[in-house]
């Protein structure tokens, strides 16, 4: 078990924060269709609880989901038993030849394990090499704008049997977003508390696009997956491997 997205936060993400994945998937399917990618293997980095995996799988693709959280993968395996899942870091996992690599929900921003420019560039190179010609790499990341400089922003979200309290702040020098999360999940008459701290890299999209281009990709940057506009301070990169 990792210290991030443990059992309770994985459950809460799955039941309470599923819209991001569910609303992103149709736009991603449109991009694939537009590129005439109708079938084949999609590798999903940071597949979480398998919400988008299920949609891709039902649309006729084979899917390999990779996530660092064993608790997330356990939910995903139950949701999509016919897809393949691995508990592994997306930065180091083996990526087999495939027609698309996707990563929905800021996964490439997380700094749970080593995440640096060099690590990211090595990942881009591996994905470029393993993508079939005409393949596509689609992902979103966080960019600055989650809290004003010096501000500690606090909010809470609640569901039927859980509450999540989040404190977030940005470090503009380190280009880092810190989310301190307190999750309370009802177990019988009591609430069980879990604390997690998530560090996420904030990206400059121009630099990110430049790195992708230097590694052979053609790149579009946008703030939406089809009709779904991402919440503020998130951006999408769509990177094509030429035919
Ligand atoms: C915000 S969740 C999004 C999950 C899912 N894609 C969705 O949209 O519901 C971020 C996911 O990224 C995963 N993650 C973060 N860093 C990772 C890494 N280095 N390798 C693999 N998965 C990672 C987390 O475990 C978590 O499941």
Which spans of ≥5 residues are poorly predicted at pLDDT below 50?
none
CATH level-1 class of the largest domain = Alpha Beta
What topology, given as strand order, has the largest sheet?
A: 3-2-1-4-5-13-10
Major β-sheet annotation: 7 strands, mixed
Shape: globular
Helix/strand class? alpha/beta
Number of strands: 13
CATH homologous group name of the largest domain: Vaccinia Virus protein VP39
β content, as a range?
35-45%
How many helical stretches?
6
Radius of gyration from CA coordinates: 17 Å
Structure summary:
The protein is an alpha/beta fold and about 240 residues long. The chain contains six helices and 13 strands.
What does this structure look like?
- The chain is α/β, with parallel strands linked by helices and 243 residues long.
- Helices cover 28% and strands 37% of the residues.
- It contains six helices and 13 strands.
- The strands form three sheets. The protein has a seven-stranded mixed beta sheet with strand order 3-2-1-4-5-13-10, with helices on both faces. Strands 6-7-8-9 form a four-stranded antiparallel beta sheet, covered by helices on one side.
- The radius of gyration is 17 Å and the shape is globular.
- The N and C termini lie far apart (40 Å).
- S-adenosylmethionine binds next to α2 and β2.
- The site of S-adenosylmethionine (SAM) has 23 residues, from α2 and β2.
